[in-house]
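sry for the spam today, last one i promise. C-alpha cells for design, 246 residues
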C-alpha cells in the first residue's frame, strides 16, 4: 500500500496528536450507484465532486469470505467507476486527494502551501473506504488498510431503523474517543464518540446507500513546505434494499 512520508511520520506521533476536524467540513469517499453504474464518489454530504481518477489507488475486491478477487477500476474524465461480477462482496480503495491550502482571504485552494502566497495552513488529504455490496456472514477488517471502520454485524442483514455497532481501527488497533459521523450523506454535521474499545452504536437511517465516516488531522512533526498536517477520512458504506418504482 502506498503511504506518504508525511503519513508515516504522523503515525509515529500517536493518536494523542490528532486535531479535531469539524464534521461540517468532512469530505468523504465511498461507492454508490450513479448513472446506472457503480461509482467512486468523493463529496461532502449530498454534494459530489469531480476529481482526477488517478487519485484512486490500492483498489481491491473480495468475495464473501474475504478472498481477494478481480474487479475493474474504470478511470473516466472526472471520476472513477467500478465494474464487478456477482462474486464480489466487498470493495476497498484509497484516494490521495492532494494538497489544500488556505489563502489570506480564508479560501481553500487545491495546491500545496508553497504555491499559495500567504498560506498558514496546508493539508494533505488521504481517504480510505470499505464498501459492502453483498452478505459476508462474519465481517473482518481489511488487511493492510491503516484506517477503517468495521461494522460488527453483516451489513446485508440491516434495515432502516436498525441499530448496530461499528469499531474504528488504526493499524488494526481500536481508536477510542473518536468522532464518528453516522450518516455522512445526510447529517454530516452530527457525530457520536467511540468508547474505550473504539466502538460506537449507530442507526441505519437511509433507504439506499448508508455511509459512516471519521475524519481526523495530524500535525507534521517538523516543517514541510507543502503542508502543515495530514487529514485522513475513512468510511464504510452499504446499501439497504428498497422497492424500486419504474
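last one done:
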Amino acid at each position: 500500500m502506498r503511504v506518504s512520508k508525511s503519513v508515516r511520520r504522523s503515525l509515529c506521533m500517536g493518536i494523542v496528536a490528532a486535531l479535531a476536524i469539524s464534521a461540517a467540513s468532512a469530505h468523504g469517499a465511498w461507492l454508490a450507484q450513479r448513472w446506472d453504474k457503480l461509482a467512486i464518489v468523493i463529496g461532502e454530504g449530498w454534494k459530489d465532486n469531480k476529481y482526477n481518477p488517478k487519485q484512486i489507488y490500492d483498489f481491491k475486491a473480495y468475495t464473501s469470505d474475504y478472498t481477494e478477487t478481480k474487479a475493474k477500476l474504470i478511470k473516466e474524465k472526472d471520476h472513477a467507476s467500478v465494474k464487478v461480477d456477482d462474486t464480489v462482496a466487498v470493495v476497498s480503495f484509497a484516494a490521495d486527494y492532494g494538497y489544500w491550502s488556505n489563502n489570506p482571504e480564508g479560501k481553500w485552494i487545491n495546491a500545496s502551501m508553497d504555491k499559495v502566497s500567504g498560506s498558514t495552513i496546508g493539508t494533505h488529504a488521504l481517504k480510505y473506504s470499505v464498501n459492502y455490496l453483498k452478505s459476508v456472514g462474519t465481517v473482518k477488517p481489511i488487511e493492510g488498510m491503516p484506517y477503517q471502520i468495521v461494522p460488527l454485524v453483516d451489513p446485508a442483514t440491516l434495515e432502516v431503523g436498525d441499530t448496530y455497532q461499528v469499531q474504528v481501527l488504526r493499524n488494526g488497533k481500536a481508536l477510542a474517543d473518536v468522532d464518528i459521523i453516522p450518516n455522512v450523506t445526510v447529517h454530516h454535521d452530527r457525530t457520536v464518540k467511540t468508547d474505550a474499545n473504539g466502538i460506537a452504536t449507530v442507526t441505519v437511517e437511509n433507504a439506499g446507500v448508508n455511509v459512516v465516516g471519521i475524519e481526523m488531522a495530524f500535525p507534521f512533526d517538523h516543517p514541510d513546505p507543502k503542508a502543515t498536517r495530514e487529514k485522513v477520512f475513512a468510511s464504510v458504506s452499504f446499501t439497504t434494499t428498497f422497492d424500486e418504482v419504474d
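The CA atoms of residues 8 and 220 lie 10 Å apart. ok im logging off now
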